Inverse folding.
């Protein structure tokens, strides 16, 4: 028991002692695969997000949109959490909700969809970030069906306005 507590406290100290918030608003551009777990619906996906800077909180607002090669689109807003370990390794989970349009892809059962994501990346010296994001979209059983979908994206986050 003491060993587990020691490991937990060490990880907690490492993560929160090493936290370094970005000092800029970020624009994130992503490209990847939509619905990676189902061959019949898998297609190319493109994503654009705005991540404004908030000095006073670990969580920050996020506004975004995605579109696929099958005319699916999703417009969403929510919050992201940003931890940067040793000023380089970025771990950023996010939670969002928004309007989903099926386009020529599968019926997701309801226009309101929720997105949970995790992004892991590398922060460059100029605060640009290169990362990989995995996320799940679901209607939380609000609709007549809830098939969900998962996407795997490569992302580039670019600082657009710096703060002191």
């Amino acid at each position: 028991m003491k060993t587990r507590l020691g490991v937990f406290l060490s990880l907690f100290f490492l993560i929160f002692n090493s936290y370094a918030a970005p000092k800029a608003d970020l624009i994130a551009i992503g490209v990847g695969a939509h619905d990676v777990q189902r061959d019949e619906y898998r297609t190319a996906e493109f994503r654009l997000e705005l991540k404004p800077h908030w000095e006073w909180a670990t969580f920050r607002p996020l506004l975004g949109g995605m579109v696929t090669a099958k005319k699916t689109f999703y417009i969403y807003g929510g919050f992201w959490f940003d931890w940067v370990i040793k000023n380089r390794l970025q771990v950023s989970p996010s939670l969002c909700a928004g309007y989903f349009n099926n386009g020529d892809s599968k019926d997701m059962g309801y226009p309101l969809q929720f997105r949970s994501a995790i992004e892991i990346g590398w922060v460059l010296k100029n605060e640009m970030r290169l990362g990989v994001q995995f996320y799940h979209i679901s209607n939380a059983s609000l609709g007549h069906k809830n098939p969900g979908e998962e996407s795997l994206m490569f992302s580039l986050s670019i600082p657009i306005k710096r703060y002191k």
In short: DSSP finds one helix and nine strands in the chain. The domain at 21-162 is CATH 2.40.160.20 (Porin). Residues 2-17 form the longest helix (16 residues).
